[in-house]
Design goal:
By secondary structure, this protein is of the alpha/beta class. Helix content is about 40%, strand content about 20%.
Amino acid sequence: MKTLKALKNEIVLKLADHSIEDPVFEAGLLITHVLNINALDYALENNRIIENSEYSELMKIVEYRIARMPISQIFGEKEFWSRTFKVTRDTLTPRPDSEILIETVLNKLADKNKKYRLLDLGTGTGCLLLTLLGELPNATGIGIDISEKALTVARENAINLNLVSRSEFIISNWTDNIEKSEKFDVIISNPPYIGFDEKETLPPEVVIYEPEEALFSGKDGLDDYKKLAKQLADYLSRDGVIVVEIGYRQSFAVKEIFTSAGFNQITKYKDLADRDRCLMIEF
């Protein structure tokens, strides 16, 4: 049997040997998760004896991590906007940078109690749609995705967050299966926007473990913006807004795409790292 202190040292060294960027931080995440202890106990209980079963479980997930499986997939969940979302290999992991989309929408909507109608394009885990529904108590919405496996995850998240009655999830290639008569007050999307030429620059956690169809969009990453720009005018209410995530170097190109499609008001917003991260698009 090992002490907690010895276990920390062993796992930090193993993670460092396999080029994990912050082995001390990640060792803490893995250990506190398996031992079900808080950060204070982790810091102070160095003499705690680790049971053989605990050690075996930890070594198993350490092996997953050094194979570069994302921690979100190891744990099967990720926090987003103070809510916990189930994550699998069939979905993108919700990222803190995407919270700027939620902030942008909520700042735009003056009356949070109105019966807004929402559309989330490429819903994945459902984190964007379900977060907005959680913040807008009378809103309803549809999440669409081309992957039935992703929709299964989104539906489970809706159940876990008690939002089933106000959400619907539909398989669709963008708006193909959305009724033409539908009008939405908010259309939100984190579409694929990475160019195929950028694939070799991405970390293995992304390339190996996240769904390719949710990441890549043609040579320059702009193919799906071009598709959406042609489709969304038919579904947006007259006073509605579209909020899309963008790559930090894409704001000018995406703005030009939507301007050419007849949208006149486009506002850029930055993420926590002060990089261009989303556009709000209006008629």
